[in-house]
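Folds vary. Our protein:
___
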Amino acid sequence: MNNLSMLTDLYEFSMANGYRQTINDEQGVFDIFFRKVPDNGSFVITAGLEQAINSLQNFHFDQSDVDYLRSLNLFQDNFLNDLLDFKFDCQVSAIPEGTPVFPREPLLTIRGPLLQTQLFETLLLNILNHQSLIATKARRITYSAGDRPVMEFGARRAQGPDSATYGARAAVIGGCTSTSNVLAAEKFGIPSAGTMAHAWVESFPDELTSFEKWAQVYPDNAALLVDTYDVLKSGVPNAIKVFKELKAAGHQPVGIRIDSGDISQLSKAARKMLDDAGLPEVKITASNALDEHVVASLLHEGAPLDNFGIGEKLITSASSPVLSGVYKLAAVIKDGQTIPKIKVSASREKLTLPGLKQVYRLYYPGTQNAFADVIALADESLDQPITVVKANPLATQREQRIEKFDAVPLQVQALDGPKLQTTLPGVFDIQKYSQQMLTQIPAATKRLINPDEFPVYVTTKLAALQESLVEDAAENE
């Protein structure tokens, strides 16, 4: 990954410079978490950790960067000299990519010199917010598709090359099987997929000739786009002629793609025509601005579709295009003492959770069936039974006693300085892990509409610490 040290907001540099001049001996602990789930879902699929780690390991400033910062006439020389000598000196722990995570849970925690940790805010949020957003959208779409493969087709509608490429990676984490983006396919080992565009069909004197020429060039990859002129009057009949010729020559036709019109009705009629022609093995792919709700509707109507190619609604998460992850100071460390910190605002909903923490997933004893998450202070043990409090400060009936459970910590060490402390699995290994984790949470939390809430609690010790800091802030107003 390219050096992204300058991908930040100006105030990060201003604050870091200020720390250098005032409290340069203190360390900061920052958490990344979110409060709201896109599309009114109940969880987010976390993604982007590998790119976040790579960007931190490669974080440095060139002379040209420092010269530019010097030209702003905002920063002291000692700070600028520190940037030239920058060496990553932080510890990072994170929840592994592909894990379903819930509001207020710290999916990444970074600890280190305040000057350094402050500079990473925008960069880390940019990476994790984007990939987690797309992975979450892909999970919704592939959930709707069931066992039918979903191909990621969105590169041309993504907001720039990086969004297209890393979005394709995230889409696979969320369940997609392939991508039309050749750069992403090459970079991440994803199968590449695609057929033809309407321009191919239009470039020949007639549709049949265009199909014949395609089959001549690609006899074992004959997937034909049948909606350039008329799906049922010309597209499918011409495809049938070419497919029969291919079979007679010993080749196996792949399928047809419908990219416009009433896909439900057209696919039903096309399926009958293909079956009547002795081509039941030919697949039907649907594309054209699909999302999870359109896919669910098509399948509910009985559309005989075998694959989906989904572009703009996936790669931009068009119906809910922002994951509002935040980067908040949870503690400062001075002279070896950890001092918890909290953000207090007019709305209790925006209260942050102070201190160094760990997230635990609770399972019914001896099973892989999760029933709740608990956020605890890092030095706590989860003794049984345990009394916990709803993490959402607006919840009613917040206190709960839990008698028996198996607790599994979710955050793992990722970086100690630049040294990697965890494995970085391939994208399909992450997908497999994600699908396994999804089987462990209740089915009701995975619904697309009105999903059930998965309980997230904090320990009474953490809740008491939060409340005491709120009271301290009120007294100091």
Observations:
- Residues 195-284 form a domain with the TIM Barrel fold (CATH 3.20.20.70).
- The chain has a mean pLDDT of 96.
- The longest strand covers residues 326-334.
- The chain has two domains: 10-134+321-475, 195-284.
